[in-house]
Amino acid sequence: MRVYVFLACTFSLAMAQQPPSPPTTTLVPPVRPFRLPARTGVETQMEITLEQVLAMALANNKDIEASRIDQLESEYTLTAAQGAYDPLLNVNSYWEQQITPIASALGGSTTGSLLNKTWLADPGITQPLPWYGGQVKADLSSIDAYSSNTFLSLNPQYETALNFSYTQPLGRNLMYDSNRHQIDVAKKNRSLTDEQFRQRVMAIVQQAEQGYWELAYAYNNLQVQLEAVRIGIQQDESNRRQEQQGLLAPIDVVAAQTQLANFEVGAYAAQSALTGAENSLKELILPDRSDPLWSTALMPVTPADVKPPLIPLADAIAEAMANRPEIAEVKINGEINEKDVRYYRDQTKPQVNLTALYSRAGLAGVLLPPGPNPFTSAFGPLVTQLNELSALAGLSPLSGVSFGSGTVPPVLVGNYGHSLSGIWAGDFPTTEVQLSLSLPIRNRTAESNLGKSLAETRRIRNQRQQTEQNIQSDVRTGMENVQMAQLRLQAAQVAQESAEEQYQSEQRQFRAGTSTLFLVQQRQATMITARSQERRSEADMSEAIATFQLVTGTILAERHINLSNKQ
Length: 567
Prior knowledge:
Elements: H1 2-17, E1 44-48, H2 50-60, H3 62-82, E2 88-101, E3 113-128, E4 135-147, E5 154-169, H4 178-244, H5 250-285, E6 296-300, H6 313-323, H7 325-347, E7 351-367, H8 374-392, H9 416-425, E8 428-438, H10 444-512, H11 517-551, H12 555-558
Parallel strand pairs: 1-6
Antiparallel strand pairs: 2-3, 3-4, 4-5, 5-7, 7-8
Helix pairs in contact: 2-4, 3-4, 4-5, 4-7, 4-11, 5-11, 6-10, 7-10, 10-11
């Protein structure tokens, strides 16, 4: 204890021997001029309404344009699928010259070679039918044949044939085939892209509206912060005058300038937020970076929407179930899967095709004049010997045997047109009926595809239930957000009015000498915060209403947007 007392006395004596500190003096800081710099890249300004913003977003937004391209591609896909029933015109033609060595006069030539020339043209048309998987084929074959064969009575010859065939499946592909399946799926995909387009438009409209209200808040908040700077400048000027009059201490001028500097920070931050909000909105509504509106300040003039929708929760959920594109998309996916099930089930059937063929042939040619026939001359000595033997045996000669060139029916003599007339008259018809059967032993491919599509049916059913649950959650959350936004706005309005009254009262008390500068500045900061919070609550209320309209699927109707005129 004695040690502690000794140390304490020693410290007190040392402090008493030190010279007293000089009094501190507070210097009045110089006046700081406030200047809000011009915004980067902004040269002009224009007023803009919410309707103009939405119209520009629908016309210029790249995501919406991509959805329009998806719609166009789906139309092309459908047209391509329908092209399976386009008639197919085909032409097969050739010219051939062939010289064949011949070792015997019986081959039709005495020169040791035989010349054959052939011209063929075979135009035809194939037409798949959209009913019951049938297919019709027709072709007209024309052959112009010339030969040096001496046995021919008609040279050149004109061979023609008109052929018809109809193939009808009786098992697989009778009620549903690949062509009909592709067309049905393409139609459903077109409807699906329409719903996806509607969903994308709804999302962009909501984003554009949200961006508009964010820009409106940014402007309002900048005005609030600039008003705070103006109040801070007035307070700073007032404090400086009173300090010069000896009514306030220099430290009060420092306090006023501190408050002013804080307000300036808020103004700079508000302008930065304004530029960010404006650029975000321009990204949604401008077509490209060269648009002149990038250098224009957009000033919102549409009043904030602060009237909440009055609708019961059950009605809002029912409305969302009827209007949300997600429900329609799941339904269309289910319909596409039903087409897949039908097609793959049909593919498990045996393939039985009935084909009916009918053709008419025509033949005509130029009749050659009679002349020496090598075939007749070759058998002449044999006939003479047979006649001599017959005379020795007392038999009659072979006078009825003739090896001449013979006669050609007049119906075959003529030109190419005469050959065609034979087709028209139906002189040489052919009728044929074919039945073909193809039955895979196991057919695992079709059975696996069918099983996969049936499994997809269960997945789509689960997806629909999950989508409906998500939509109900969205509606409940959206309605709650609207209610809370409304209450926050009402509270912010009360807080702003109260903060205004408190500030005015504190100012009067300060001028009367019954309050302090600290309390006045505290009321100033509270009032500025309340003003900014009121503007924030107004924007939040408008955005909450837009989001609620999105989750209920009514945002396009509320904004009078007709997609049939926008596609």
